Amino acid sequence: AAKQQGRNRFNYFAPFMQEATRVRMTLVNELREAVNHDELRILFQPIIDLASGKICKAEALVRWQHPVRGLLNPAEFISIAESSGMIVGIGDWVFKQAAREVQKLQALGLPDFQISVNKSAWQFRDNGSNYEQWLDFLQELHLDANSIIIEVTENLLLDTANSVSERMLALQHAHMQISLDDFGTGYCSVAFLRRFDIDYIKIDPTFVSNLSNGTDGVVLCEAIIAMAHKLDIKVIAEGIETPQQLAALTAAGCDLGQGYLFSKPISAEELEKQIKNQLPPVNNSLDIHRTTC
Ligand code: C2E
Ligand code: MG
Ligand code: MG
Ligand code: MG
């Protein structure tokens, strides 16, 4: 009877399963074509030093310029990229683009400018990226390893695969900086912040959006910032959309901010334009006017 039931269940779900598999296979093939035909793009979202109001970093965010469906956000293809293994190649490409861009921006007279790239746990597992190639690439471009910040989520730090923590620690040993993305939404303990010697915490937008007066939002942000500073970690608030949120974060001692209030993710050309606009006028040599952050 059980066998009979099982077979019935299988028959019942089969058409639906086949359809899901078909859609997935189509997406995988399309994404593979996209990579081969240079349909991936990178946008950069400025990160602002809240004390000076200037752009001192940017986050690289991948997009897919789909021939029919237009510009697609990562939500529409990153999980397919991960489960198909394509994330490794895509992630390496994003890394190289980010490195080339940070080289350009540092040469504009901002030697401390950094670009962050997002990495998922897949990229640190055994069949993942060869992180030594990232370091070699930075060296080829004559960039310090800390020109690039690696953004990871709390669950990556909790990943039980040995390769994940080994690779993270190796990158840090090479002086690449680590930023903990979406902080507060996972299960990361303070012990992990210490173990991985995290450089930045990015406060998740869900906390920032609760920053209107009279809610827990302010208390939570203040607590995260105080804890981070005790551990010598800088704080980036993500998803800042209103002047009120910015004021509350500044009052709480937040170091850096990112969000639509300052800028949406923009093209490399637009980012370069904005950065040139905030540089002091070039009277003499750029060296005298080097701006740091
Ligand atoms: P994330 O790393 O947390 O990136 C921040 C997301 O918030 C971005 O979405 C950004 O466009 C959006 N955002 C920024 N400011 C605001 C704001 O003020 N309001 C609102 N509502 N949203 C804001 P995006 O570009 O769609 O990226 C989504 C996620 O995709 C990223 O979240 C990241 O986890 C992932 N991702 C992006 N690029 C890559 C990549 O190259 N590799 C990997 N593995 N993941 C990536
Ligand atoms: Mg991120
Ligand atoms: Mg985030
Ligand atoms: Mg460090």
Automatic annotation (TrEMBL):
The chain holds residues 611 to 903 of 904 of the full protein. Residues 24-279 form the EAL domain. It comes from Duganella vulcania. This is EAL domain-containing protein.
